[in-house]
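Appendix B. One record, verbatim.
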Amino acid sequence: MQDEDRAHERAPYDPMPHGPPEVGVGPWEGPWPEGEQWDPDLLRDGDRRNVVDRYRYWTLEAIVADLDTRRHDFHVAIENWQHDFNIGTIVRTANAFLAAEVHIVGNRRWNRRGAMVTDRYQHVRHHPDAESLAAYLHSLPAERGGPVRLLGIDNLPGSLHLETMELPRRVCFLFGQEGPGLSEAAREVCDGTFSIAQFGSTRSINASAAAAIAMHSWVREYADLAGDDAWRG
């Protein structure tokens, strides 16, 4: 990893409003621990990344490898035709809920600002169009868990209510651009669509908020909350 990448990785960002003014921890005190997961630069200089305590002083590669042992069965996909600012926020939420993969559909370059560097800890795949995404998900082999159903979110006629539908365990939530929603091409390849119940005057809710609701619905139904894999900061 280049020096400038390390500096960017350890840069203070996104401090918790109720926490200390400086994010993270300082240099390791006492004898250094042994093991391949430890980053000597972080042990020496301190770890200012926005990671949970479990991963303090770990290398990026070690964190990703550990996350890979626990990733959930849901995927998240976002159409990217207008460099929507919501994409980064959706990626950040996908990291928080530990999605299997994140898929960017359309333009390869996407607005990473809202991701707050969390894309480094996710497997992010690019697909040129929704048809390619659907083909990828439907053809996943048994050793990777098997096919994944593609469900789009849009308030379309015939969409199921998220609040009452039975979510598939192996599912990919597909979100369209803020404003126009899912493209016509995306709607055609989805295995189904769902909508989120609303009771106010606005016609729709923010795409990143909708994504968070969908992912948390999956977590409520399938995630193991009994052990140490679920934490609160």
